[in-house]
Design brief:
Elements: E1 3-7, H1 16-27, E2 30-35, H2 47-56, E3 63-68, E4 73-82, E5 99-112, H3 116-123, E6 127-129, E7 135-136, E8 148-152, H4 176-190, H5 192-196, H6 200-216, H7 225-253, E9 261-264, E10 267-270, H8 281-289, H9 291-300, H10 304-330, H11 336-348, H12 354-362
Parallel strand pairs: 1-3
Antiparallel strand pairs: 1-8, 2-5, 3-4, 4-5, 6-7, 6-8, 9-10
Helix pairs in contact: 4-6, 6-7, 7-10, 7-11, 7-12, 8-10, 10-11
């Protein structure tokens, strides 16, 4: 695996990494822009070498991009490098900057956080500057232009992992309590495959809800409304990911469904809009009950268990979510009983949780 090192400048934005991380959680990919310094009036001295690396970079042949401000250091799993980006969201602060290249990555690891000495003596000292006679990387008085190619004295693949669905960035900036709760959910509720199939934002909402639940379940006066919101957000996202894959498949096998109409709060949509606009709970129930969509599912989805999950389990769960959520919205206080009802359904207490089932059945489509 090839390695590049670049600097990020907190001067452009004090939350550079945090902003990229949030978009990565939401979209699965994000791009880091190599900003051209206004003080640099010459071209990169090793651009021809970099161009070769850029052209060879792909999902099958990713590179490791190390990003540091010398206070912290991260490494990104870069899957493409381009002068322009299409349909990939990036932090807004780039709008006022001149970006030379975009490094698109799908995973990110924190190597050291706010520890200059460790970065200087342990991390960067393991790098050799490839185009500078393979000398050990020098922080002070160097002639480097970034990004720069580096090799490691002790080779480390920071994205080597046992489970292909796991993403390292889901652990960045999490406390020990959050990481322990995450492990508990994996060990006692979901299992690795099921938990890692959840979107990162779903994972975060469930972890946060479970921590809050454990801290307050013995308090009979506690209002559990905030937990209902967190569980609901996770469910809404996972339900959308599941139904989006269903409808993508249906639209591929039956183009006539593209213009199938539905409406949300007085606004008209067509079925193809569901691929870019997340609807509400009731819309899913309406769509899968419709004659045209139901027939297409029966015709083109042969897996009986999947059809049962679509037609029976999903609408039943939607009704449960709507009822409990409506009670939490219109009632004075959401009691432990109502919270337990949703919690039992979502993560699975004494049974399989529906949110894990969305991920499992999504793989059958």
């Amino acid at each position: 695996m090839k390695n590049l090192l670049s600097l990020y400048n907190p001067y452009y934005n004090k939350n550079v990494i945090e902003q990229h991380l949030q978009l990565l959680k939401e979209n699965g990919v994000v791009a880091f822009g190599k900003v051209r310094s206004k003080l640099r009036d010459y071209e990169h001295p090793h651009q021809d070498v970099l161009d070769g690396i850029y052209e060879e970079t792909s999902r099958d042949e990713p590179i490791q991009l190390f990003l540091t401000d010398y206070n912290s250091i991260y490494v990104a799993n870069v899957v493409s490098i381009n002068k322009t980006i299409n349909l990939i969201k990036v932090p807004k602060y780039y709008e006022e900057l001149e970006v030379e290249y975009w490094f698109v990555f799908d995973d990110l690891r924190l190597i050291a956080h706010k520890d200059f000495e460790v970065i200087r003596d342990k991390i960067l000292s393991n790098f050799k500057a490839t185009n500078f006679n393979d000398r050990t990387y020098a922080i002070y008085g160097n002639p480097y232009v970034y990004p720069m190619q580096v090799t490691m004295k002790e080779e480390i693949n920071y994205f080597d992992k046992d489970d292909e669905d796991f993403k390292f960035y889901t652990n960045i900036f999490k406390s020990e309590e959050q990481l322990q709760m995450k492990q508990n959910l994996i060990d006692f509720n979901f299992g690795k495959k099921s938990f890692y199939s959840l979107a990162p934002n779903s994972q975060d909402n469930i972890i946060s809800a479970e921590i809050e639940y454990m801290q307050n379940r013995d308090n009979i006066l506690y209002d559990f409304s905030s937990l209902i919101v967190k569980y609901s957000k996770a469910v809404e996202l996972e339900l959308y990911r599941f139904m989006k894959k269903i409808f993508t498949h249906l639209l591929e096998v039956d183009k006539e469904l593209e213009n199938f109409p539905y409406s949300i709060q007085g606004r008209d949509y067509k079925l193809k809009d569901i691929l870019t606009h997340k609807p509400n709970f009731g819309t899913y129930s309406y769509l899968i009950k419709s004659h045209e969509i139901k027939n297409t599912i029966n015709t083109h989805i042969q897996n009986g268990a999947l059809r049962h999950f679509i037609f029976v389990a999903t609408p039943s769960f939607i009704r449960t979510m709507q009822n409990v959520r409506n009670e939490s919205v219109h009632g004075d206080v959401t009691a432990l009983k109502e919270c337990d009802e949703i919690r039992n359904e979502v993560i699975g207490i004494g049974k399989g949780g529906i949110i894990g089932e969305f991920g499992r059945f999504r793989k059958f489509i």
